[in-house]
Amino acid sequence: MLNLFIQRTAATLAFIACITSVMGQDMIARQAPVDKKMRAVDSVEIQRLFHQENLENPAADLYPSWEDDYINMYGSVQLPSEYKIDLRGFCMPTNNRIVTSNYGYRPRFRRQHKGIDINAYKGDTIRAAFDGKVRVVTFQRGGYGNVVVIRHPNGLETIYGHLSKHLTKKDQTVKAGEAIGLAGSTGRSTGTHLHFETRLLGEYIDPAKLFDFEHQDVTGDFYIFKGRGRGLLLGKHDVNDAGTAEEDVAMAEGEGVEVTYNSSSVAKNTRNRRAAQNTRIHKVRAGETLGSIARKRGTTVAKLCRANGISTKTTLRVGQILKYS
């Protein structure tokens, strides 16, 4: 009788243990998808926070500082020998597809065009090319006009020139496709268009190597930038798309200022590079003429005209920058 009781008790305990094990396994099985989902949620949140940090401090591992007064201020920065630029997530800055002026040397003006010009109509919306943070919002009378510079987490800085109106502010984070300005013809411009540049650490990159404007797409998911392993020649005194120095380069009330040009973005031949590396400039004052400037700078009117692609009948503007050697 006792043995029968023991056997029944043992069977009952075994049954309870089996049920408990099965229930535990069922609970684990039910919990597994929840854990997986929670891990996915955590991963998405981590990625979101990481992306937000990149927007607040875009390409912080590449750029040594944040300067919002100068478009190009990387004179002492060493270029990486190679840098992978992620082009995914790109948005065309304008819906217009017609490129009216390509990147490269312009024989007619005897200067380098450091971006591309895209046809646009006054008031057209100009958008950020990538997610990023606005670094410069300013106006240049003799160059870009109303201009916006955005630094992006992928290492690029994009420049949008000749805008009729700014729609963003310094230090503002923006998303790809977000409106940053309206197309116009401000600054040194012969008609309404968007002047668009792409740079890495101040080094100019032909936008056509990155983007296919006709088909409104990128040329690939990534672009490998090949640096030359040395610092840039261009310092704080920037050179804009018009081939003249920024308006604020003439800091000494119009006195001559030595401007060092980025030789990599000048004409390929050695003669043009040497001619561009040490260009002296003069900021036009009220009442000055080509003749008075030529006498002051020890040159001739003919040389001034040739150096600046103008004629003796050109009307000078106060604040205009002229090269004189």
Brief synopsis:
The protein has 4 helices and 20 strands. With 325 residues, the chain is α+β, with helices and mostly antiparallel strands.
Structure notes:
By secondary structure, the chain is α+β, with helices and mostly antiparallel strands. The protein has helices spanning 2-56, 270-277, 290-297, 301-308, and strands spanning 82-86, 99-101, 104-106, 111-113, 116-119, 125-127, 132-140, 145-151, 157-163, 165-166, 173-174, 179-182, 193-200, 203-205, 211-212, 217-218, 222-226, 257-259, 279-283, 321-323. The strands form six sheets. Strands 2, 5, 7, 8, 9, 11, 13 and 14 form an eight-stranded antiparallel beta sheet that branches. Strands 6-12-10 form a three-stranded antiparallel beta sheet, with no helix packed on it. A three-stranded antiparallel beta sheet has the order 18-19-20. The chain is elongated, with a radius of gyration of 30 Å. Residues 229-278 have low confidence and may be disordered.
Please outline the helices and strands.
Elements: H1 2-56, E1 82-86, E2 99-101, E3 104-106, E4 111-113, E5 116-119, E6 125-127, E7 132-140, E8 145-151, E9 157-163, E10 165-166, E11 173-174, E12 179-182, E13 193-200, E14 203-205, E15 211-212, E16 217-218, E17 222-226, E18 257-259, H2 270-277, E19 279-283, H3 290-297, H4 301-308, E20 321-323
Name the descriptors.
alpha+beta, three-stranded antiparallel beta sheet, 4 helices, elongated
